[in-house]
Design a protein that fits this description.
mainly alpha; 2 domains; about 70% helix
Length: about 110
């Protein structure tokens, strides 16, 4: 079911550090709809909802093989656009998790 896959992807992106506005822009939805989908996916995962888990199985496997990575331009843009200490903390966590493909300058 498309709705389950969309909710799963929104939750995954949120866990990977994308904010509600960025996720909404990707899907063409407003932040309230994104919040609803994320909460929905969290509930289904918490309760091990069978249909949800079946619908998202292939996506889970695919994303385990191809994790989300960002490049240095994403890092720069996120720092410039950041408007709160919490946002900077999330960027720091992503850096510590090596989610940015950063090139060493020699």
């Amino acid at each position: 079911m498309y709705v389950n896959k969309r909710s799963f992807l929104m939750l995954k992106l949120h866990h990977d550090g994308y904010n509600l506005r960025q996720i909404g822009e990707l899907f063409g939805l407003n932040h309230a709809t994104v919040i609803h989908n994320i909460k929905r996916a969290e509930w289904f995962e918490k309760t091990n909802e069978r249909l949800y888990l079946e619908d998202t199985r292939e996506l889970r496997l695919e994303l385990m093989e191809h994790p989300v990575n960002r490049n240095v331009n994403d890092l720069i843009t996120e720092v410039i656009d950041c408007k709160s200490l919490r946002g900077l903390e999330q960027i720091q966590i992503r850096i510590l998790k090596n989610q940015y493909k950063l090139k060493c300058i020699e």
